[in-house]
Amino acid sequence: MESSKTTEDHTRSLLTRLAGPSTNKAGLQSVDKEKVNKIIYEVSKGSAFFENEVKRDAAVTEKINSMLSNYEKIKTQDLTADLVIVDTQLIELDQTRDLSQHICHIDMDAFYASVEERDRPELKSKPMAVGSLGMLTTANYEARKYGVRSAMPGYIAMRLCPQLIIVPNDFAKYTEVSGQIRRIFEKYDPDFSPMSLDEYVSTSELTVEAVIEQIRDEIFRETGLTASAGIAANKMLAKICSDINKPNGQYLLPNDRYAIMEFIAKLPVRKVSVFALKHETVCKSSVASRLLTGQIYIVLGYDISGIGRVTERILEALEVKTCGDIYTQRGILYKLLSPINFGFLLRVYLGIGSTKIESDGARKSISVERTFSTLSKEEDLYNKLKEIAMKLADDLKEENLKCKTITIKLKMPSFQTVTRSKTICRYIQTGHDIFKYDAELPVSLRLMGLRASSFISSDDTQNMGLKRFFSSIPPSEMTSPSKKAKTYPASQENELDRDGVDLIKITTNDDYACPVCTHVLKNIDNTQFNAHIDICLNTVELKTILTTQRSAIMPFSSTVIGHEIQHLSHAYLIFLRPSTTFSSSRKSCSVSGTNEPQHSPSPKLTTATGSSSLLNYFGNSSRQNPG
DNA sequence: CAATGAAGGACCC
DNA sequence: TACCAGGGTCCTTCAAGT
């Protein structure tokens, strides 16, 4: 029977995929998932989105199959030696267990929807969701009975529940309520308000549970909203526990090794999500607090990861359904998964998670993206991108950040998504062949986005200018100029330009080849020359990264792209016209969502990633080909 | 032979 | 009627350069 699982399994996984990411949320347990999934399937069948999901599902299937064939081989092997290694690892991990404190995760129930209900009580008894017909952000519990949930397109929700009321998002309002809640927490946090601390906590008779109840109660009195809480020994467990008695309830998992192991063993892997505190985000509905011997530290914001649809499928194929199964299958998992993923699973199995409140806040990237009804005209696309770039530039300015890397993201009407990124100094130094842009190739897009990352201090920007450019690029590499150089003139107040461009001294009026576009500029003086360089640097038409860098990986069916980059304030404006038919030949990644930023607050992330990646590679290959 | 950049995904809310 | 978001983080794989 194992071998005859073909189309049936296929549709099943597809149905699950289409059902969306949040099918296990509170309030959804009682719905007839089969039926709901079927309706979702019927409604979306044939759409571009659907077709794209089919592809992605197939990719996961393929990956699983290759894993399974490996699995078959390994099954017959003697894993004794491996088990010794794994069990040693388990013992070591167990010794890191920290049961010295309680950590509590407080989660607002259906936050946006609850706010709307509070303001319009008549909605309480009716199925209601917040969002638009395009996409819902959340649904109240009445609506969840019909299978309506967050991240579901509104029009599909309407099929599931025709009487559904959809209320538009009102983020300003939610932010305000977040502020209210936050102020409540501040009262409990000694760092914010030491005075009121005694008022609430020093009555040491109060149990942890009582304190949390009190906090939830106060939230309710203050905002009219309910919250749920999980109290446990670490962040991971606290997060999981907060879901158990949702809505408007709390759950305490005792700080006892046995209790924890019992609890986790029965837990379906999909329930695992890991709560890690990151930079402070006000407009979120989750709050974590830590109770430590009479003190409470409140931290807002989160960074949550977990085991999602894909990982669940992979694990299921490896016969791991509950966290307890991780132990049973540990030998296989050790052989098949990357060390990082495997280590994560071991910690899950042991119920070990981070207990730190490292509010290591530095944010790593800022992005802006917009979906729109399909645009095809170059001009429209350009304008849209310009808007996005302006917005991103504003955001950067607001955060007082400068970036080194810009990533553009494009989504075709087919939902195929491509991203292209460039770090500025490299971009300038490398001086990609400039591409004479080819025949008009209108491409349609449904989304464009820009992301800024690799933030740099202004010191770093000093050495990235033309000097460096000049010194490292042989003139022969420069090619023809952008036809459009003057169409998109440089923006006036361009800080990055100022920082990045050193003026070039030319002593005599002469012919001079522009290093960027290689045009020979006749008889110009310093000022004119510099002006020209400015324009060229601001608007460079690249031979597309797509052709030069990706052709080896992704076969292109037709001609490619004009690609322009324009400085716009802090941001770069990138314009591309890719061919519509990228065929991704990539294999999908392995088990992910396994990232609880462990201990060490911020030791070189890049290094960590790099080396683990290598470790991974070597580790896997040596283990997977054992003889 | 480490370090790095780029592209693509998975996951969360 | 309407036809699948936007903002982040981290992980993995590839490829190329010294």
TrEMBL record:
Residue ranges, compositional bias (Polar residues): 473-482, 595-627
Enzyme Commission number(s) of this protein: 2.7.7.7
A GO cellular-component term linked to this record: nucleus
GO MF: damaged DNA binding; DNA-directed DNA polymerase activity; metal ion binding
Region (Disordered): 471-494, 586-627
Superkingdom of origin organism: Eukaryota
Matches recorded under InterPro entries: DNA/RNA_pol_sf (IPR043502), DNA_pol_Y-fam_lit_finger_sf (IPR036775), DNA_pol_Y-fam_little_finger (IPR017961), DNA_polymerase-Y (IPR050116), DNApol_IV (IPR022880), Rev_trsase/Diguanyl_cyclase (IPR043128), UmuC (IPR001126)
Domain UmuC: residue ranges: 103-276
Pfam families per record: IMS, IMS_C
Assigned keywords, A-Z: DNA damage, DNA repair, DNA replication, DNA-directed DNA polymerase, Magnesium, Metal-binding, Nucleotidyltransferase, Transferase
PROSITE patterns: UMUC (PS50173)
First-level EC class: transferase
A GO biological process held by the record: error-free translesion synthesis
Catalytic activities: DNA(n) + a 2'-deoxyribonucleoside 5'-triphosphate = DNA(n+1) + diphosphate
Protein's recorded name: DNA polymerase kappa
